[in-house]
Write a structure and sequence with these properties.
By secondary structure, the protein is an alpha+beta fold. The protein has 3 helices and 6 strands; from the N terminus they run ββααββββα. A hairpin with a 2-residue loop joins strand 5 and strand 6. Residues about 145-149 have low confidence and may be disordered.
């Protein structure tokens, strides 16, 4: 999918209001999604603490991009709720996100997706092509069928 009809990102995320951090999708295919965000500059960003937005909050931006990628993907797993289960190889190349004037670019790439279990993604946040936050994230799906068997 290289051309897009406008979407409302919040329709694909379990968040509302200021907690929906992403602005728009820049590209998407079966395994990758790129998007941008400017909410790191919003003084009402709910992830701010002491009026600062720590770089580790970039993980939430990436998690929302992963949820959006799955939501825009095949219907089989797009409606399942996912939970961040594990982070691996997280690298913070900056201390704060709110000091950056450029839009954040968030890129996620699915390494593994099982519609019954979950997914593993690589993620990378940049601003003006400068690395900010990267790593891998394991998302587990909360399936009521899986719990009851």
């Amino acid at each position: 999918m290289n051309s897009y009809e406008p979407i409302t990102i919040a329709d694909y995320l379990p968040h509302a209001g200021n907690m929906c951090l992403l602005s728009h999708v820049t590209h998407r295919d079966d395994t990758t999604l790129g998007c941008e965000a400017q909410s790191h500059l919003d003084l009402k960003n709910p992830l701010r603490s002491n009026n600062q937005l720590a770089a580790i909050c970039g993980v939430e931006y990436a998690a929302q991009a992963m949820a959006l990628h799955m939501g825009l993907g095949d219907v089989e797993h797009s409606s399942q709720k996912g939970f961040l289960a594990s982070l691996k190889t997280v690298k913070l190349d900056c201390a704060r996100l709110d000091t950056l004037n450029e839009p954040l670019t968030i890129n996620v790439s699915a390494l593994f997706v099982d519609p019954n279990l979950g997914a593993m993604y690589d993620f990378r946040l940049t601003a003006a092509q400068k690395p900010l936050v990267s790593g891998q994230c394991l998302i587990l799906f909360a399936s009521t069928e899986a719990r009851s068997s």
